[in-house]
Every structure is written in C-alpha cells, then in structure tokens.
Amino acid sequence: MQSKLQEQFTQTKHYFALAKKDIFTPYLLGLTFLPLFFALLFIGGIFYFFGSTWYAMLYDSLRWDLNLSITWLAWIQSSLDYIIQTTIFIFLAFLFLVFSLLLTLTICSFLAPFVVNFVRNQHYPTCPLEGNTSTFASLFSLLGVYLLYLLFLVLLLPLYFVPFIGSFVILLPNFWLFSKTLVADVGEGIFEKNELKRIKLEQKSRIRSVVLPLYGLSLIPIIGFFAPVFALTTLAHLFLNLKSNATF
C-alpha cells in the first residue's frame, strides 16, 4: 500500500513537472490568458454596469425599517442595516465566484482539444487519439453538470452564512465541478467513451492524486489564474501516459 502511494506521488510529480515546462511555451501561454481575459471582461463588465444597481435593489427590498424613535435604540437599526449590507456583499461576491468559475471552465472545454493535441504532438506523437464524442454531446453533458452544480449550491446555501464553516463548504461543489469538467474535457478527447468510463473507475485514485493538488493550485491568488490550462495540460499528460503505456 505504501509503495503504491509512493509510486502515485512520484508519477504525479512527473506530470506536474512536464506540465510546468509546457505551460511556459508561447502556445499554451496564449491559451492560458484567453479564458482569463474573457472571464474577467464578461463578469467584470456585468458587475461594473449592474453591480451597484443590484446592490441597491437588494438592500431596499431586504432592509427592515424598525421606526425606532428612541435615540439610544438606534444602534439596533444600524446593526441590522450592517448585517443586511454584509450579507448582500457576500452574496454578490459568491455570484461573482460562481459565474467566473462556470465561464472559465466553459472556455476551457473549447480549449481542451488544442491542449491535448499540443501535449500529444510534443511528448506522445505515436499515441492515437480515439475520442469520438461530438461537440453537441459534450455541450449537452456540460449543461447537465452545471445544473447539478447549481443544485448542490442551492442545497448548501444555508451553510454559506455560517462563520468559518461557510468558507469551506463552497469548496466542495467547486471541487466536484472542477474535477468533473476538466477530466471529461481531456479524457473525451483521448479515449473512446466506454474506455474512458472504465479508466475513470480503475484509475480513480491516480486521477484524484492529480486533480486534488490542481484544485489546490486554483485556489491560490494569481497562480489560480493559470490553473485551468495548467490543469488541462497535466491531465493530458496523465491520460496520454496511461494510454501510451497501457498500464490500465
């Protein structure tokens, strides 16, 4: 058991080292900044033009005017207003995070074939690509994943406002979405659909050993900007290595 974990750790380090070299090539650097640029432009534009309006609208609809005429009780109204304002701010920041993640991962779905082809041509030129999933099927599947993700967010919504716990709860559905979409984006471009299902089942621990640190990197400020394409590159190395060596 220990030797197996050590082997997985060594292999994960190898995939990360290869991806680190690849990500600084001009081609992948261009792909890296593409989703970042569009995500920030789109989400930032929405909040710039509508953020203050939404904030004011939510505040006006949620604010409770207690009509306290006694001066020394005014602190109750002030405290209530502060709680409502803080809650609205957290909610809008939460929406920004969710929409940024969804938009970035959607763009990465279109970039995945380019990343897979680049890694394959650079490191595994004799490895055939057998992905046969149509673009329509991929987008339909992605839509289903997003709907489940939004359902998870709604079910966990009461926990987001619990101090300390709320900041960690949001990590769970985000990890599920991160793992589900990126593994599918890369795997479907390399393997036939049924073969990919088998590999995800048989190589679950190896895939998780790669995805977990990738998700951790995505949470680090600044570095997280480069995480989606870096994750695609690392997973491409993982799956292409599995396919070329036929170790599954």
Tell me what the structure shows.
The chain is 83% helix and 0% strand. The chain has helices at 2-23, 26-62, 74-123, 135-160, 165-169, 171-187, 193-202, 204-218, 223-245. The mean pLDDT is 79. The chain has 9 helices and no strands. It starts with a helix and ends with a helix. It is mostly helical and 248 residues long.
- Give the overall average pLDDT: 79
Shape: elongated
**Measured on Cα atoms, how large is the radius of gyration?**
22 Å
Largest sheet: none
Q: What helical percentage do the residues reach?
A: over 70%
Category from helices, strands and their pairing: mainly alpha
Order of helices and strands: HHHHHHHHH
Number of helices: 9
What share of the residues does DSSP label as strand, in percent?
under 5%
Short description:
With about 250 residues, this protein is mainly alpha-helical. About 85% of the residues lie in helices and about 0% in strands.
Present the secondary structure layout:
Blueprint: H1 2-23, H2 26-62, H3 74-123, H4 135-160, H5 165-169, H6 171-187, H7 193-202, H8 204-218, H9 223-245
Structural key phrases:
mainly alpha, 248 residues, elongated, single chain
